[in-house]
Design goal:
This protein is mainly α. The chain has a single domain, classed as Rhomboid-like fold (Up-down Bundle), CATH 1.20.1540. Helix content is about 70%, strand content about 0%. The chain has twelve helices and no strands. α8 packs parallel to α10.
Length: about 230
Amino acid sequence: MLYQGLRPYLPFLLVSALAINLLADWPYRLLLLSRWVAAAWIIHALNRFVFNGGLSRTFGLKPRKLVGLPGILASPLLHDCGLDDHAKGHIFYNTFAFLFTGWLLLLNGFFSFYVVSLFVILFGGFLTWLLGRPGTNHVGASGVINGYTGFLLIYGLVILDVYALIITFAIALERLVNTLRGLSPKQVGVSWEMHLFSFLGGVVAAVYFERIYNWFVWLEWYAYVEGWR
């Protein structure tokens, strides 16, 4: 009887509940994401106007070269500094995509955000270093973004939570086409290896989240310090 009475209002109630969840703790989420974005833009400005792209050349991820190993951690904060259209839009596109996927990922909690981020960076970065095309230099946050996309696409199906499933649908609607396009080896000047391996890293993180969560439990100290656990 109660269900029959509420049935016409269920879509409205569901959307309202999701909106409340999306906006919960929004100042802290915005602050966290803004830190990442600000760091990327400051580094990009220095790279472009002070070092003339030298940071990308020095700290980019170079497959199977020892000097390329630091790029596993550094490359997500570096972006193209060229004058072609792709280079000009590189950091702009990644900024908006990172804010969108990062915001949805933060719905799982701040500590989970750090766990997934670190796992995706290490997983995608190492496989790109190990299997990437020789003579290439990989930079950009698109690998991390693809990792978030892979995680968000699968996690809702793993835990079968209504909010997570709605996020899965939203990600599929907004990101799936661009993500699949970025995985194609036919694209020139695109780090499809980083896109692919990071996306797979996100999928692995979603399927084995509890186990991976325990691997990175030592990160809790940072979450406690920030008060964001």
